[in-house]
Each structure stands twice: as structure tokens, then as C-alpha cells.
Amino acid sequence: MTPPAQPRDRLRVAIQKSGRLGDPARELLASCGLTWRESRDKLFCYGESLPVDLLLVRDDDIPGLIADGVCDLGIVGRNVIVEHGLALEAKGGLPLVEWRQLGWGSCRLDVAIPDEQEWTGPEQLSGLRIATSYPLTLGRWLRDQDVDAEPVLLNGSVEIAPRLGQADAVCDLVSSGGTLRANQLKPVTTILHSEAVIAGPDRHLEDGRQEIADLLLRRLDGAVQLKEARLLMLRADRRILDSVLGLLPGGHEPTLMAVEGRDEVAISMLVHGPVSWAKLEDLKRVGAHNLMVLPVEGMLA
Ligand code: ATP
Ligand code: ZN
Prior knowledge:
Low-confidence stretches: none
Helix content: 25-40%
Radius of gyration: 25 Å
Number of helices: 9
Distance between the termini: 37 Å
Strand content: 25-35%
Bound molecules: adenosine-5'-triphosphate, zinc ion
Order of helices and strands: EHEEEHEHEEEHEHEHEEHEHEEHE
Number of strands: 16
């Protein structure tokens, strides 16, 4: 299946074909009600339930595909967007922007030095070669620190560069730090905090695609909130209402409903995150009853 020619009235989203962000990106889109038909080469997925198609690519290609208008949006790490943005900026192009932060795929772009060295501060990097796949992001940080060091571009296995004598330090993505430790390196400073984002151009999409994107993002916001959402329900005598309301967890405004034939109110409230047993016991202690915490299956604000 070949992607249709421009202009397009279907939204096209680039995601990582495999790797760390591929599966969570698909799961996120599936949680927005998207279903697809895959092409035989598994590079293009035709959206069946919504006019949203997926392009499955290497993460490094995602910013370029959006900048060239081949795709409208992409799900990719901030680290990739920042590095690409700096390359574009140097050529006078318009950097992409983050349409949403997704809260997963978190990692740091850290400078790391050999274990046995002491860290005294950025000026210590002066005159050193620093191996990295993010030379522009590193270069900007070095300039901000007023340090003159040389980024050495490596597209893989950055962390073995010091042992091979290719570099004196590294600047690499870290989440647990295990890979660095295994290579006798220690992280000493963070130059970028990253997470998965929805990246797109800094303008509205054309040919009706903005409306499709808005619909998708609305569902996505709902899906993200939904993961955490609980509905807290309880009943309370009107006389103790004030103490009950004072004990309710933070979240949305509670809805109060009169209970037919009784001097009681039923209270329901949307809560973000779990409601602890201790909280339920506190509410019970002041006289609330019929306490219930329910998962939320669907939500549209
Ligand atoms: P591709 O084949 O698509 O180029 P890749 O090897 O460049 O894949 P992955 O290792 O799958 O990419 O990482 C994708 C993204 O996951 C990174 O750009 C980063 O945003 C995020 N990430 C989260 N934790 C880590 C980590 N510990 N190391 C590397 N990337 C991480
Ligand atoms: Zn990559």
C-alpha cells in the first residue's frame, strides 16, 4: 500500500517501528479507539475507525518527516526533537513543537565521566572529546556553560568510546544508569530531561486535518486522565455534610444528590489517582457510609 499523494484529508502520524517507544505509542493510539489495517511491508497502517494513518519508521526520521509535511504529527522522544530543532535552526528553519507531553519514555541526556575521576564541575570538560549522538544539544549546553570541548559524533555504542580511546567523556541517554555503570562511567550532570511527546509543526494543519488532530488529541487527553481516574461514591447524613466534604480528597468538585425520602445526600466525585484505605476509614469515622471507589471506563469533559 503506497501512502496517498498530497493534499491529504487523512491525518498521518509517525511512530517508532520498533524500539522503546513503538509499542507504548500504538497502545496509546489504540486507547483512543483507533484500529488499523497493516500494509504487507508493515511500514504503513491504514486507520479504519478514524481517518488517522500510521507510518512506522526509525525515531530519528520522525522530525524530518513532519518538517517535510510527509507526516502531520509524531510520537517521539524530546531528545530527538531538540537535536533536530537545533539543526533546523542553524539552517533558518522552523523547529517543531511539543503538542503534548506523554509522561512515559522518560530519560535524561547526561554527561558521564570515567568512574575513577572526580567531578568538580563543567569547566573540567574543557579541551576534552565528548562522545555523543546529540552533538548539537551538547554543543548548546557547552556554550551555555562557557566550556570549550569537542563533541564527537557516534551513532551507537557511545558508552564504550572512552575505553576505546575515542573520547574522554560521553553524553548519552540514561534511565537507570546501568549501561554507564557497566562501562565504568558515572553520570555527573544532566543536560536535558526527556520524555515521549507528540511533536508537530508550530502551526495549524491544513485540508481538514486539524479537526482530525483535535479529535484525536481530545480522546488522547481523556485516555491519559482515564488511566488515573477513579469515581468515589458515598452517602452522608446532611448533619455531617460539612465534615464529610472537608475530608474529601483533592480532585474535581463533588456532585451532591438528594436521597429520596431521607435526610441524606449521595456524593460522587472524580478523583485522580488511588483513594487510600485510610481516607475511606476517615470518611467512615465521621459518619459517611456506602463508600465505593470505582474505575472509570470512559470520560469526555
Ligand atoms: P531506532 O531504531 O528507531 O532508531 P533507537 O535505538 O534510536 O531506535 P530506542 O533505544 O528505542 O531508539 O530509544 C527511543 C527513545 O526512547 C529515545 O530517543 C529516548 O527518547 C527514549 N528512552 C527512554 N529511556 C531510554 C534509555 N535508557 N536509553 C535510550 N533511550 C531511552
Ligand atoms: Zn534512533
